[in-house]
Amino acid sequence: MSDLIIVTLEWLVVAIMFAFLILFIVVTAPSQRKNISSLAIPLGRKGEIDFLVSRIKTGQSSAVIGLFSGEKTEILGFLTNSKLYEEDAETLIFSNVDIALRVNDTATQFWEWAIQPLQDIPEVAQAYEVCSQNQFSDVSLRRLTNVLRQSEKRLVLLLNNFQEVLHFSQLKQDEFFATLRSLASSPHPSPLVVVVAINQSLMEFHRETEKLNPSGSPYLNFLEGGITILQGLSEKEVDKLLAEVEPPLSVQAKQSVKKFAGGSPYLLQVATSEFLKESSVEEFELNFFRRVELGLQESLQQAHSLKYRQALLAIIQQNKLDEFEKELGFLEEQGVIEKVSNQWQLRAEIFRKMLQN
Amino acid sequence: MARRNAKQISAFHKFFQRIATIPQSILDHWKCYQTGYVWFLLTCLFALLIPVLAKLAIPELKYSFWKFLSGGDIALFSMVIVTSLVIDHFVFDENFSKMINLVPSGSKYESEYMFNRVFIFVFPMFAIISCLLIYLRCQALSCQALSCFEFVTFLMEITMFLSVAAYAAYIKTSSFSPTTKTTRSSQASCQT
């Protein structure tokens, strides 16, 4: 009998040791990788995505600042993937709004459109109805967010092309910005998370809106802790990224991709995928240009971006560069231009082709 | 009542979901800490060189494979490895303490991460004590004959050897990369 107990105890010890081994492996395994790596992360933006996901998970708002509309749209779209949020996914409700498409909206129409997904959530459907009856007033929106908090839900409002709001007279109002700020900055963790995609710095945005409320604090100051600048990559980072492309690119192909896409992960992604399709450099050049032309035009033709377009033209013509100091700094940060021997020059040659066209 | 049942089902479901993810976790762990495993393998090979060189130098030397297994040499070797890693990282690595501040307070997963952090400290201590006990047990039972060899003891030795391999791989992978000094960031580096 005592032998049986000893044998049982020995096997129990083996089982405990084995359980410890498995537990250690589970604890140290990169659990988030299981979800994120299986998704197609926008190239070179892993860090930014991780940061934005952690902000959303903790109920904090963020701003995504970058030049390329296509890249910002891709990132906002990517953020709506529930697999990124693990167990929190059940509590999140996403609403992706492109401000550029809401030209004629009043604040009421904007809120009606933006919080529409709440209609289908049983816990808040009633509060949404009341809010709708009250024309989405400030007070009714606050009540709605309180109901969201009580029902442990969180609305993630993804606002693309937010700089366009400055050109829509019906939205460029003190009330609209004040409501957005008060709802998003309600006690932590907020039931309303705002992720704003914008192509200018928040400081510039503040400057352009300070006339609406000269004595008040900046409207987007609640985003200052969560600024994500979609920076360009260094030469070394670009080389590393291109070395990982499957199937591998030839040396000539890598040089062409770097020449035309510069340090922008977005352009690098498009250029690489184009090169994998085309055999010759000439074909690649033509097709890459065709593919990004519209997107670049869109990025540089929005009201605020005209300055970037002028700054790029100034570089090509090498004159009046002093007038665009701020813009040049921004474009350098985006990996589009670089300063070589104290002289500005294009890093992404695709812009020369586009502007000359 | 229904809500309570729903919560219970949910917890039950989550438990099985976690069990189901173990194979994936093992695969992830292996992929993530491969560099550390290479380090561990090379260390083992280096340790094995000693008997090989001894055998080459002294051809008359008798080296018994069964004695190697039953004498607790594996447990002793595992204990030496894990002890040296613990001293290296708990005593001399100042960044190791940064593991404490990995998750913001109030986070939903705080308790889970707290458990993970504590476990990462507890695990090597458990390994050292277990290896020591296995070695003492092997020494007590040690004999040349095959009949003396205990399968359970061998299993214990091998389990602890694998545990130490996993721990060493984790620690060495983290310390090889300058940007991966903490658990979370080392995981992040694996994601890229």
Walk me through the structure.
The complex is a heterodimer of chains A (357) and B (192). Chain A has helices at residues 2-28, 31-36, 46-57, 69-79, 107-114, 122-133, 138-150, 174-184, 202-209, 235-243, 251-261, 265-277, 281-301, 306-317, 325-333, 350-356, and strands spanning 62-65, 92-98, 154-160, 192-198, 227-229, 337-340, 343-346. By secondary structure, chain A is α/β, with parallel strands linked by helices. In chain A, β3, α8 (174-184) and β4 form a beta-alpha-beta unit. Chain A starts with a helix and ends with a helix. The model of chain A is unreliable at 32-39 (pLDDT under 50). Chain B has helices at residues 2-20, 22-32, 34-57, 65-70, 73-92, 110-141, 151-176, 183-191. Chain B has one domain (30-184). Chain B is globular. Chain A binds chain B through residues 7, 10-11, 13-14, 17-18, 20-34, 36-37, 46, 50, 57-58, 87-88, 188-189, and chain B through 18, 21-22, 24-26, 28-29, 32-33, 104, 106-108, 116, 119-120, 123, 126, 130, 152, 155-156, 159-160, 162-163, 166-167, 170, 183, 187-188, 190-192.
Poorly predicted parts of chain B: 1-7, 100-109, 178-189
CATH topology of the largest domain in chain A: Rossmann fold
Distance between the termini of chain B: 45 Å
Radius of gyration of chain B: 21 Å
* Widest beta sheet: strand line-up of chain A: 2-3-4-1-5
CATH H-level homologous superfamily name of the largest domain in chain A? P-loop containing nucleotide triphosphate hydrolases
Average pLDDT over all residues of chain A: 83
Count the DSSP helices of chain B. 8
Structural class by SSE content of chain B: mainly alpha
Helix content class of chain B: over 70%
Instruction: Give the chain pair forming the largest contact, with residue counts.
Output: A-B, 32 and 36 residues
